[in-house]
Amino acid sequence: MKKLLVRRLGVGSIAKFVGIAHAIWGFVVGVFLAFSGVAAVIGEDRWSDLERVFASLAVVLGALVVFPIVAFVAGWLYGAVFTLIANLILHTSDGIELDVEEGK
Question: Averaged over 83-100, what is the pLDDT?
């Protein structure tokens, strides 16, 4: 086994990773939101058929495009703030020791 000492984390790379993970999760949640939103629009009695079509498109666009983008931005910010705090802790505690071994 080999020991490595981690003293600093890359803010951009961790923020990007967390942002992408949040965007994927946001898309999954957006699929469910799209189904329930379209069902609610279709059930609306006061709207004409054309209004229902445009409202359904707006709901699907918001759930499958806008929601994952917002989730990415929120995740990226969370990852960046977390990494900045983690770097402060790593600096004051002289890092983290990791035991690693080479793969075959």
Answer: 93
Helices (H), the chain: 11-42, 49-61, 67-92
Read off the pLDDT of residues 19-61 as tens digits, 9 standing for 90 and up: 999 999 999 999 999 999 999 999 888 989 999 999 999 999 9
Taking only the tens place, the pLDDT of each residue in 66-89 is 999 999 999 999 999 999 999 999
For residue 63, the SS3 value is helix
Q: Which pair of tokens denotes residue 77? A: 């910010």
Q: Which of 96, 99, 102 is nearest to 6 (CA)?
A: 96
Cβ-proximal residues to 46 (8 Å cutoff; 6+ apart), any chain: none
Give the CA distances from residue 80 to residues 36, 70, 75, in Å, rounded to whole numbers and listed in that order. 33, 15, 8
Separation of alpha carbons 12 and 56, rounded Å: 37
Q: Which of 1, 6, 3 is nearest to 86 (CA)?
A: 6
> How is residue 11 written in tokens?
């803010």
